[in-house]
Amino acid sequence: MKNASLILNAVLIIAVGVLYYLHFSSTAVAPEATSMSEGPLQSIVYLNADTLLENYDFFKESKAKLEEKTKQLEAEYTNRASGLQKEIADFQRNAKSLTITQGKALQKDLMTKEQNLRMYQETLTQELVQEETKINTKLFENLTEYLKEYGTKNDVSLVLKYNRGSDVLFASEGLDITDKVTKGLNAEYQQSKKDSTSTSETALPDTADVN
Question: How far apart are alpha carbons 172 and 157 in whole angstroms?
Answer without folding.
Answer: 17
